[in-house]
Hints:
With 163 residues, this protein is an alpha/beta fold. It has one domain (4-160): Alpha-Beta Barrel (Aconitase, domain 4). Helix content is 35%, strand content 16%. The protein has eight helices and seven strands; from the N terminus they run E-H-H-H-E-H-E-H-E-H-E-E-E-H-H. The relative contact order is 0.14.
Amino acid sequence: MMTVFQYGDDINTDMLFPGKYTYTCSTAEEILPHLLEDLDPEFAGSVKEGDLLLGGSNFGCGSSREQPVLGLKAVGIEAVVAKSFARIFFRAAINQGLLLVECPEAVAAFEPGDEYIIDIEAGTIRVGGKQFAFPRLPNEVLAIREAGGLLAWTTRQLEEEGR
């Protein structure tokens, strides 16, 4: 069963991955034990593949470090659903192929124990027996996510072009 981790507004990159590890942790294996270390000390030990993060407004604000996104992607987070995202975090998530969904109504409707179903193609989220629409992601973003991130997508494109 999926676990939903819910956090509030202005969750910054230091809360997601403490800045004190910026220059000592660069691989997913090094990052994982420190994910949300200061915000939710139980997170790294309890998160599992397919879990979901809910955030408030301005999720991922702060610095442009890739470690928070790399760690969330590596641990297998299904998606981050938030009221809004900081632009720098949004771009880093696209680069890594981490699904971000902006849907304030779905975040507000969540109650502990609710099941969350995200239909990326349809642009809908079902939570607590209600369905909410979110702006459908552009085909390019979906393709990058499907490929596993921007680097993998670019490599695939070049190979298809024979370069």
